[in-house]
Every structure is written in C-alpha cells, then in structure tokens.
Amino acid sequence: PARPAAHPSATARIGVDGGRSGIEGEHLAAQRPLSRKAFSFGSGPVKVMVVLGTRPEVIKLSPVIAALRPLAQTIVCATGQHRELLSQALASFGIVPDIALDTMQANHSLNGLAARLLDGLDGAIEATAPDWVLVQGDTTTAFCGGFAAFNRGVRIGHVEAGLRTGDLASPFPE
User: Fold this and answer.
1) Helix, strand or coil, per DSSP, at residue 149
2) Which tens digit of pLDDT belongs to each residue from 92-151?
3) Which of 20, 59, 86, 164 is the residue whose CA sits 20 to 30 A from 92?
4) pLDDT of residue 138
C-alpha cells in the first residue's frame, strides 16, 4: 500500500490523540492503552524502524520496543556507535537487532562517524521502507537517523529532546 505523504509537522510530538496515529511519550501511554488499530495505515500495520547505537539509547528504547512489537512491525537497527557497550545492553534486554551497521572505526572523528551513519542508515531505510523512524536523545546516531529519515520522506519519532544544559559543548556531542 502507498505510504501517506509526510506532514510538515511529522517530527513533532505525535500520539494516539485527536485521531492521529503514532508514538508519544510515557505520559500518554500511561493514560490510554494503545490498540493495534491505532498503528495501522489502510490495509496493514505500521512499520517502525527503531534506530539505536549507544547503551543509553538501548536502556531508554527497550520498553518502547517491547510495547511496539505487538502493535507494529518493528525493525531494530543498531548502528554500533558504541559497539561494546551497545552489545552488552542489547543482550541485557534480550534485543536482537534486525539490522546491524558496523560504523565504528579506530580513531574516528564525529564527522567521519556521521558520514558512515548517514550512508548506512540511508541504505537501511531504503531497503525496509518504514513508515516511521524512531530515535532517542541527542547522539550522532539519533541525528543521523532523523536526518536520513527526513531526506527519504519518512516520518520521525523522537524520544527525549536532549539534556537541556544550555551549553552546546556540555556534554560534548558524541
């Protein structure tokens, strides 16, 4: 089935509120149980790609992944931004990625990492054609996941909007 056109506000908070389908933070999920109907477009379920690459992303997204799996076709894409810590966290939560990108290189720069992430995520999004890409936080993985999805016209869900220190260098981007 054809995917609905991305709406200009698709990167804003979305939820099962006011007749809109999608994903929102814990407060809405705690108020109303989600139904499979809320996660369908036309004839089939929504396909959600969850992009994660760091241990904190796994910790924060694991309950979201567990909640999504019975409701939507859920694709877990691990970027490997923090390879060893990521592997440990995924194992702790029993999450096996559907897609594993091997983006880490010794002595890499953030720009080099971002370039590899954008290329790998673009290919993953093209190959799986998700309706939504879900990212968490303010990591390079989250930025590249959102940017790659935006460039492909895929809706973006963003969990947690950063640490809000008011200082762009604290913590330094990773």
Assistant:
1) helix
2) 999 999 999 988 777 888 899 999 999 999 999 999 999 999 999 888 999 999 999 999
3) 164
4) 85
Q: What share of the chain is helix, strand, coil (3-state, %, to 5)?
A: 35, 15, 45
Our CA angle for 33, 37, 40, nearest 5°, is 125
Euclidean distance between CA atoms 33 and 151, whole angstroms: 32
Write the CB contacts of 164 (distance below 8 Å, at least 6 apart in sequence).
none
How far apart are the C-alpha atoms of 87 and 92, rounded to whole Å? 9
* Tokens describing residue 1: 């089935």
Q: Rounded to two decimals, what is the model's pTM?
A: 0.73
Report helix angle 110-128 to 140-151, nearest 10: 40
> In 10 A of CB 24, how many CB atoms?
17
Distance, CA of 158 to CA of 150 (rounded, Å)? 12
Angstrom CA distances, 25 to 11, 12, 19, 160, stand at 14, 12, 16, 8
Other CB atoms within a 10 A radius of the CB of residue 100 amount to 18
Q: Which two tokens stand for residue 31?
A: 């108020």
